[in-house]
Amino acid sequence: MGRDSGSDGRPGLRQPGLDSGGRPGFRRPGSDGFPGFRRSGSGGQLPGFRQRDHSVAPWIRTRLRTAPGAAVALALLVMATACLAAAFPRAVERYEDAGLRRAVVDATAPRTSLQVYAPQPGTYIPQSERESAVSPASMRKAYERVLNLVERPLAVDPAQSVYGVRNVNSLEAAETWLPMPSGLPAQMSLAAQSGLAEHSRTSAGRLPRVEGTVSAATREVEAAVTTETAKRLNIKVGSVIHVPGMQRDPLAVRITGIVSPRDPEGAYWTTQPLLRTPSLIRPPTQGGEPETYWLGALLLSPDAAPVLLGTPGEPARYWLLTPDPTALTAHDLSRLGSAVASLESGPGLVKVRDSTDADAGVSTDLDEVLASYAELRSGVRPLVSVAAFGTGAVAVVVLLMAGRLTADRRRTELALLRARGASLRGLTRRLLTETAVVALPAGALGLAGALLLVPYGRVSYAVGAALAVTLLACAALPVRALAAHRVVGVHGAREDLASVRPSRRRTIAELTLLVLASAAVLALRSRGTSGTSDEALGSGASDNLGSSGDQLVAMAPVLIGVIAALLLVRLYPLPLRWLARPAGRMRGAIGHLSLARAGRTSVSTVLPLLALLTALTTAAFGGSVLAGVADARDRAAVLNLGADARVEAEGALPATLPERVRSAPGVREVTPLSIAYEAKPGAGVESVPLAGVDPEGYARLADRTGLGAFPAGELKASPAGGSAKSGAEGSAKSGEGSPSKSGSGGSAKAPTPIPALASSAVADRYGTHPFSLRLSDGSDVTVRITLVRDLTPALPGTDFLIVDRAGLGTVAARPTTLLVTGDQVSGGALRKAVAAGTGADADATARADVRLRSEERARYVDSPLQSGAERVYAAAVAAGSGYAVLALLLALVRAAPERAALLARLRTMGLTRSQGRRLLVLEALPQALLAAAGGILTGWAAVRLLAPGIDLTSIALATPGGAPPTGTAALHTDPASLFLPALTVLLLATGIAAGQAWWTGRRGSVRELRAGDSR
Question: Model's pTM, two decimal places?
Answer without folding.
Answer: 0.75
